[in-house]
């Protein structure tokens, strides 16, 4: 009886084994595809990380260049203010000297006065800065999550 039961099951067991083998093959193929996808993803990750590193280097160089240019600008502005103060002192000296009014004609004196009041009054306004350059940098850095040390910007 036992042998008959095994023979009766034999046909369906064989089909079950074939079905299991097909499932194993399908699973093996899925695993192979997933391994290929994983390898491609790792390669892409390596490329993206290399690109990110290159961009970080470029960002560092750009920040350094901005810092150098800002230092140059601050030195130039300080020199400009120094020269404008000297010029103002010369104008004031010319306007106060008694010999200056005798040597200069009335027209020269009035032109000098107009130049001194107009040019130097505007030029030496406290906190004056060129409006051609926007130093805020917020439009570039606000959305990127990159920290930017601005402690030297106010010097």
TrEMBL record:
GO terms for cellular component: centralspindlin complex; cleavage furrow; midbody; nucleus; spindle midzone. One of its GO terms (molecular function) is GTPase activator activity. The keyword Coiled coil applies. Residues 31-97 form a coiled coil. Keywords: Coiled coil. The keyword Coiled coil applies. One of its GO terms (biological process) is Rho protein signal transduction. It comes from the Eukaryota. Signal peptide: none annotated. This is RGAP1 protein. It comes from Fregata magnificens (Magnificent frigatebird). The gene is Racgap1_1.
